[in-house]
Write a structure and sequence with these properties.
By secondary structure, the chain is an alpha/beta fold. It has helices at 30-39, 67-73, 84-97, 108-119, 133-141, 169-179, 203-216, 227-237, 246-255, 264-267, 280-287, 289-293, 304-316, 320-323, 325-339, 357-360, 370-382, 421-436, 454-457, 466-478, and strands spanning 101-105, 125-128, 145-148, 186-190, 219-223, 259-263, 273-277, 352-356, 387-389, 409-413, 444-448, 459-462. The protein binds ligand F0G.
Length: 482
């Protein structure tokens, strides 16, 4: 993609789209935001959008859809079986991901459920570059375990390593030898590794993983939910592919996997999900589970309109101007925060900006959830809703003990083509104020903790009256400004 330079010399990301449908936002007063936090148990998942100004919870199902996607939804061929919309989706999957056989599912975690039901048994071990919450929950739910095999550099917050999502090949070999290939149903690689800050793997690394998988006869499963962004960063950062194109890079990745799955809520800016493969054997192993858990094989629990939007969205993944918008906004915000010495994951990844709560809230012990506290504090002082990606998002071990996260992150998602640059500058401004007043942020404790995926439904409370003190300081500095 060609660079667009400013005469002023400023390095600004430029929107290559125009807004034609817009939604009004509301920035409610800080007193209401404080009430909303108490009502929602200091868990940003529990906030109502009527109290949220910039919704940076996730990019899942919140990317802006294109005019062509909306138009395609109008021609949906509604049918329980044999819908032509599904035929269009199959063709898009084959053209973009290079896989002939497609199983539709209602979203990404449904694919994880089906793959885990089919292959994971008690005693199974699934090596992966890093876990995603739902992938891990489905594997452990079926009696399996996971092992994360990143290189140490993945955990370095401020780094210039281009591929922190790479799998540690030596450790992978070791794990397979120790555990025995027969107990390893598949190796899982996640494109743009979400929970370490949306960090990509290189194609060379994926080739190395493939070679190990071949040597031991183990399936390679690729989570393609963020493959467009991983491909975009490969185009920028991997020597061999500089000057190549999105289609070639995506296909080079998917061709290395036996089985691909995805959340279409991310990949194609629609809803839904899918599992695809070129192996008839794998297809047959999974096929019967789709009508059981999802719906008939030509809709898989999705609305047919979404299937049409998904097909168009898949082709749009090949357009660098579509995929680059979010990473370029993220890079802008990351670098601005870094200039102010606010600890943030570098290099800038995809999906969102990831703040290091372990450093920002160094005074809050991990057992009082620094990332959850930072998420609540940011919402209070700005109306910006981020997502805790730290120990609250971890699950307890089989004995009920807390397992502390490797990193305590506050993720501020930047969904595709949703926010403007002045909104991003507002984020920067309020984060700067919060950083300067970070000593006022206190910890959290659970008062309701569900046993599975606790971060969604859990309710917490502050340890003391720090939210009131933070609000008082905000009012002192901002007067009657929202
Ligand atoms: N894999 C990855 C890499 C994901 O990021 C997600 C979802 C899933 C699988 C599950 O897909 O939500 O459609 O069931 N990530 C969202 C997020 C929830 O906010 O990062 P799903």
């Amino acid at each position: 993609m060609q660079e667009i330079k400013f005469y002023s010399g400023e390095d600004l990301p430029l929107e290559l789209h125009k807004a034609r449908i817009v939604q009004k936002l509301h920035l409610v007063p800080i007193e209401r935001r404080l009430e909303a936090l108490y009502e929602g148990g200091f868990n940003t998942f529990q906030l109502s959008t009527k109290d949220v100004f910039l919704d940076m919870l996730t990019d899942s199902g919140t990317n802006a859809m294109s005019d062509n996607q909306l138009a395609a939804m109008m021609q949906a061929d509604d049918a329980y079986a044999g819908s032509q919309s599904f035929v269009r989706l199959q063709k898009a999957v084959e053209d973009v991901l290079g896989k002939k056989h497609l199983l539709p599912v209602h979203q990404g975690r449904a694919a994880e459920n089906i793959i885990s039901v089919a292959y994971v048994r008690k005693g199974s071990l699934v090596p992966m570059n890093y876990h995603f919450t739902t992938a891990m929950a489905h594997i452990t739910d079926k009696g399996g375990q996971i092992v994360e095999l990143l290189y140490d550099e993945a955990y370095v917050i401020n780094s210039d390593h281009p591929f922190k999502g790479n799998m540690n090949i030596e450790k992978l070999e070791e794990v397979i030898v120790q555990k025995g290939a027969k107990n390893i149903p598949f190796i899982r690689m996640e494109a743009s590794t979400n929970l370490i800050g949306g960090q990509p793997f290189s194609i060379q690394n994926l080739r190395d993983v493939r070679a190990v998988a071949n040597k031991h006869g183990i399936r390679l499963v690729l989570d393609c939910s963020l493959i467009g962004e991983n491909a975009y960063l490969v185009l920028q950062r991997e020597e061999e592919f500089i000057g190549s194109d999105m289609g070639t890079v995506i296909r080079t990745m998917t061709d290395l996997a036996d089985l691909c799955y995805f959340s279409a809520r991310k990949l194609s800016s629609s809803r839904g999900g899918g599992i695809c493969t070129n192996s008839m054997e794998i297809f047959r192993e999974l096929e019967a589970l789709v009508p059981l858990y999802e719906g008939f094989l030509t809709y898989g629990g999705m609305s047919i309109r979404e299937i049409e939007a998904m097909a168009v969205g898949l082709y749009e993944t090949l357009d660098e101007t579509v995929i680059s918008q979010s990473p370029s906004f993220i890079k802008y915000l990351v670098e601005e925060l870094h200039k102010k010495q606010i600890p943030v994951i570098r290099p800038a990844g995809v999906l969102g900006v990831h703040l290091d709560a372990m450093q920002i809230c160094a005074h809050i012990p991990q057992k009082q959830y620094p990332a959850g506290s930072l998420a609540a504090a940011l919402y209070l002082i700005s109306g910006i809703r981020g997502m805790e990606r730290g120990s609250i998002s971890n699950q307890r071990d089989e004995y009920g003990n807390e397992t502390y996260a490797d990193m305590e992150l506050l993720r501020l998602a930047v969904p595709r083509r949703v926010f403007t640059l002045s909104q991003i500058k507002y984020v920067e401004d309020r984060l700067t104020w919060l950083y300067d007043n970070r000593h006022l942020i206190g910890g959290l404790k659970f008062n309701y903790e569900p046993p599975v995926l606790r971060f969604f439904m859990g309710k917490l409370e502050p340890t003391g009256d720090w939210p009131q003190k933070l609000m008082a300081k905000f009012k002192e500095d901002f007067g009657d400004s929202l």
